[in-house]
Amino acid sequence: xxxxxxxxxxxxxxxxxxxxxxxxxxxxxxxxxxxxxxxxxxxxxxxxxxxxxxxxxxxxxxxxxxxxxxxxxxxxxxxxxxxxxxxxxxxxxxxxxxxxxxxxxxxxxxxxxxxxxx
Length: 118
Fold this sequence. Notes:
about 120 residues; mainly beta; seven-stranded mixed β-sheet; four-stranded antiparallel β-sheet; globular
């Protein structure tokens, strides 16, 4: 069992920045693939960014160049640095864990609201 706890988020004006953090339990953090997802009202959940155990990253086109995903294996932490935020980024953001690079995302954080005002 992996426990996933998120922190960060909140209300920010357009053009501002926020950083989300995610702590995941387990001795094998370095082997996890980690991801950030978001769900806006009335929309389906979408992938924002992922990072593999080897550090390979993926960012959705909608956030590329503005968001950065990173991990600190020594601290068992995942981050999402969000810059140049837009109202369209408003959503509930979720951290997710896959226990290997070939596993589905099976463990999820509690979600955190990010609201970007215009």
